[in-house]
Amino acid sequence: MSEKTSILIVDDDPDFRLTTKLVLEGAGYAVLTAIDSNEAATVAAEQQPDLILLDVIMEEVDAGFVFAERYGKTYPIVLLSSIADSSVKIFDIHELPVRGILQKPIQPDALLETVRNALAASTEDEESNS
């Protein structure tokens, strides 16, 4: 039996973590959660997730950007933000090693499509690097 693809949700909003977890588990993914970037670093190091869904604003206004800058070459990351439109104007996300940014609230279909695309891109990157 093959191992499930794992996704780490990093968000300080417990309701968002729960609903996103339910959507992803319903689609067959194994889901890990963390409440901030410090916990995310620990969970990621221990569990090696296949993808990280990362809130931009957590313990600090730019915590998500800082985490993405530090770990984006190690783990595929999709940023999540309630200010995504503004974030793109303020920060050049094209300079960050991320697979994209989703505007909250996120529709389940859009979430699953983004996850599938990010995982497919990650697989393509791994194959081209080997």
Please mark out the parts with pLDDT under 50 across 5 or more consecutive residues, or reply none.
none
The percentage of residues in β strands lies in 15-25%
Identify the CATH architecture. Answer: 3-Layer(aba) Sandwich
What is the CA-CA span between the terminal residues?
25 Å
SSE string, helices as H and strands as E: EHEHEHEHEH
Into how many domains do the coordinates divide? 1
Question: How does this model look, in words?
Answer:
By secondary structure, this protein is of the alpha/beta class. It has one domain: Response regulator (Rossmann fold, 3-Layer(aba) Sandwich), CATH 3.40.50.2300. The chain is 48% helix and 18% strand. It is built from five helices and five strands, in the order E-H-E-H-E-H-E-H-E-H. A five-stranded parallel β-sheet has the order 2-1-3-4-5, with helices on both faces. Strand 3, helix 3 and strand 4 form a beta-alpha-beta unit. The longest helix is centred in the last third of the chain and has 22 residues. It is globular, with a radius of gyration of 14 Å. The protein starts with 5 loop residues before the first strand and ends with a helix. The mean pLDDT is 88.
List the helices and strands and how they pair.
Elements: E1 6-10, H1 14-26, E2 30-34, H2 37-47, E3 51-55, H3 63-71, E4 77-81, H4 84-90, E5 101-103, H5 108-129
Parallel strand pairs: 1-2, 1-3, 3-4, 4-5
Main attributes of the structure:
alpha/beta; Rossmann fold; 130 residues; 5 strands
